[in-house]
Every structure is written in C-alpha cells, then in structure tokens.
Amino acid sequence: MLTWFEPAQLIRAVLLACVFLVAGVFLSRLIRQLIATALRHDASERVDQITLSFLSHLSVLLLWLLLLTAYAHLIPPLNRLGTALLAGVSLVSVIVGFAAQSTLGNLVAGISLVLYKPFRRGDRIQVQAPTASGHEIGIVDDISLGYTVLRTDDQRQIIIANGTMAQQTMIKLAAAPSTASRSDA
Fold first, then answer.
1. Architecture of 110-174 per CATH?
2. pLDDT reading at 69 higher than 50
3. Would you give the DSSP letter of residue 117?
4. d(Cα 67, Cα 79) in Å, to the nearest integer?
5. Nearest-5° Cα angle at 58, 56 to 63
C-alpha cells in the first residue's frame, strides 16, 4: 500500500499531493472547530475571542506551511530544486523583507497586541487620528493580523494599522452611556 505513495513517478507525486491537500483541509477544519467549541463553552469570557480567532488563523497558516514543507521534502525533484534555490533565498528574503517591512511590522505588532492585550474587544478607547480634534473615540471591534478596527458612536469604522496602534498612546475610556439612559435624561 505504501508503494502507491512513493513519489518516484509524477502520478504518485500528484496522488501524494492530493493526500496532503485532503489532510490539510481536514486539519484546518478541525482547528477551526476546536476553537469555535472553546468560544461556545466559555460562558465567563475568560478566553478572549480575538486571541482565539488570531491563533486560529495563525495555526492554520503554520499547518499549511508545514504540510507544504513536508511535501516538498518528500518529492525528490522538489527537494533538489529547493537545494539549488537555497543560495538565492537569502537575497530574495532581504528584498521581500524591505518590500514588506511595514506589513511584517504590522504582523509583529498584531501579535504583540493580541499577547499583551492593552485593550480587548468591546473596550472604548481614544486614539490619535487625522481629524480636526486630533483624536477619535471608538469601541474595539476586531484585531486582525494587520489592522485593528474601531467602531465610533455614529457607526463609522476606523481602521488602524497594528504598527500604528502599538506605537501610539491610547486612552481607555469608560463605556459610552447607552441610548436608553440618554433618552431618560
């Protein structure tokens, strides 16, 4: 049975790629389901939803990178090609690093924001913004790999790069008065 998965021939290499693809899809869904289950079963909200969502995306990305690396290692022509291209990888990585400097900075800042948690989903914060007052106030809606989304009281979305969020001074504010308490006044 294992001889069918030996990648010496093209058809067997394609068969092995299909096995890796099916395993990747299955494991990705399993990771997402486990995290969704953790979110549903945590009634006390001790587990931060943004953190779990972030870790879910990061776990799935790492899973696919590991599967791709394992597949390339098992296929002899890809293994030789990888060895031949290894010399050029350092130059390419420097070029990509310079080209994606702000994107990679936002990614690292996003990881820092999720791990250090200076704010959480639902927190009301004041940030610097290019407005007449020089600041905006919003409620944290989401933190993704590259940016943080705030929702203002008038339902506008403020999208701020994580690199900017990590470097600026933020002020945590008390929750905004609800519309019911405003109508009573």
1. Roll (2.30)
2. yes
3. -
4. 14
5. 95
